[in-house]
Design goal:
Order of helices and strands: HEEEEEHHHHEEHEHHEEEEEEEHH
Helix content: 25-40%
Structural class: alpha+beta
Strand content: 15-25%
Number of helices: 10
Number of strands: 15
Distance between the termini: 31 Å
Length: 338
Amino acid sequence: MTQRILFLIAILFSFNHLFAQQQTIRRIDSLLNAPSQTPFNGVVVLSTNGKTSYRKAAGYASFEQKKAITSESEFIVGSISKQITAVIVLRELDKGRLRLEDPIRRYLPQLTEKWADTVTIHHLLTHTHGITALDKPLAFKPGSRFQYGFISYDLLSQIVEKTSGQSFPDLCNALFKMCGMQHSSHPRGRSYRNLCKGYVLENGERKEEPSYLDVFAAAGGLVSSGEDLVKWNNNLHGGKLLADSTYRLMISKKENAFRDHVILGTVDYGYGITIPHQFSVPELCVTGVAQGFIAMDMYFPFTKTSLVVLENIATDMQELKNSFYYHEQILKIVRDAQ
């Protein structure tokens, strides 16, 4: 009798899960297919426990050539690059090649400012360093507050080149290969067939944006696809890239590292990852903005669910919340199903 009851409960749970999944798919499709002056132009991938339940590719990778976006289309992922750089740094930590509390002058002796003796790798990872330019004094005492930027992750890429003896592009590409990410790369020395062009809307007119592929690549210029970022999540959050203690360190909030995010509200920062703290279900997220590209990679650890949304049209660079419209609406739908 007990086994029969448990069997019936399992069937009921599976039925409810399938119904919720189908409802989620219908709601996302309804959103993306609705008539709009700014239709969705990009990819959406939703995956749970390594199984993709929804994928959508819509619009054009190149409007001029009428080249359609596909599941193999590649996007500049903006600050999602920082998470990849952070993992490379933490893998060097796991190998004993660096310490997070080390002052960065230990690895970059060419820095001339005195702050190189007080700013640590931890400060670079958490945007609490105070560096505004390599030749200027700090804006604030390291560790005292948060200031988001790009320069710290460029410095981190130089540090791991010193500790590993490899170039940063090689470190990125080797990590992507390890994760089975065939449509991801550091931009240097790469010829692209599947890279989308980036666009912005200005006064309702679509304008192609130049792609600065190798400017601060470690902070915002790496290239990936929707399917590849799901693979990234499965490897990172599945314990395949970092020691357990290092991973827990990565996803734990850090002192004085927090800010108000354009669609996530108040978020705490770990190492290359944000932790929104006003929702009942735990979330780990990273978003990205590049010239003409808007990206989001969300992971729900309790259900092992990945949501990746990539677009190659920025509808409003002055008011980024507008550019994240589809990302935010899809995220609301997926949150309801958690």
